[in-house]
Amino acid sequence: MYNVFIDGKEGTTGLQIFDRLNARDDINVILLPEELRKDAAARRECLNEADISFLCLPDGAAKESVSLVTSERARIIDASTAHRTAPGWVYGFAELSAERRREIAGAKRVANPGCYATGFISLVAPLVRSGIADGDYPFVCHALSGYSGAGKKGIAQYESPERDISLSSPRHYALGLAHKHLPEMTAECALNAPPVFSPVICDYYAGMCVGVPLHGRLLAKRYDAKALREFFAEYYGGQKFISVVPGDMIPDYLPSNKIVGSNRLEIYVCGDSERMMLFSVFDNLGKGASGAAVQNMNIMLGLEEDTGLR
Fold this sequence. Notes:
Layout: E1 2-7, H1 12-22, E2 27-30, H2 40-49, E3 52-55, H3 59-67, E4 75-78, E5 90-91, H4 98-106, E6 109-111, H5 115-129, E7 140-146, H6 151-159, E8 171-172, H7 182-188, E9 196-202, E10 208-215, H8 225-235, E11 242-244, E12 265-271, E13 275-282, H9 286-300
Parallel strand pairs: 1-2, 1-3, 3-4, 4-6, 5-6, 7-9, 11-12
Antiparallel strand pairs: 7-10, 8-9, 10-13, 12-13
């Protein structure tokens, strides 16, 4: 039996992690009484008692929690943005390589990837790592997300019976092109400059579709859509949670909420030899947040990676 503490259990990600762990008989979730959940001394005790703690907090609070850890054996998975490019932290995207999975397994500090970043990195990092595109390729990324990624206040705004009519329409945001996921997207894909990133929040609860267009003539190695599809299928071959959809199964319409409730991520490659579109579809609360966090915990504890996620 492993002792696990969720610091910030009341947030969307924390609640989903709790639901996934509370159904298991190999995990004891350490709970704080409501009146102590912000008490530093009580949190310090839990963080140092647990085998693994999840930080489901704003960045500043996540950094504070890390400062409370004094035990050498305490291990942390941070779901905030605070440590995703920080020295000494392992970026928790196990499917990137066998080496990355080993690093997660032995890590004391793991930064859980951001939701949009998960979609972008799943598509772009393999291209750069394999020399198909170089770090100077002018990547562009368009992404659609359900409103659950907006946090408790955003969810309440969308679900209010008196909400503004504008919430019924998809809404572009981060128009200053300074989204908080850009540093990890740039670093994990070894890019020399951040991509042009245009996220869109939509009027449905959960699900995400991240799209990256490609120009064949700008790639370092010429690939058409079929060859790229085969490349991704080989790159992610044998993975439990990432799969590549065959060309003859690509639909006319691609819904963003297609695999909500799972920890899966599906990759679609469309187009020809000159113009291609790459898509990753997944649950922003699953592979984009809580599911990935539990996956990382399983790896760190030496358990089957899909325990509690099947």
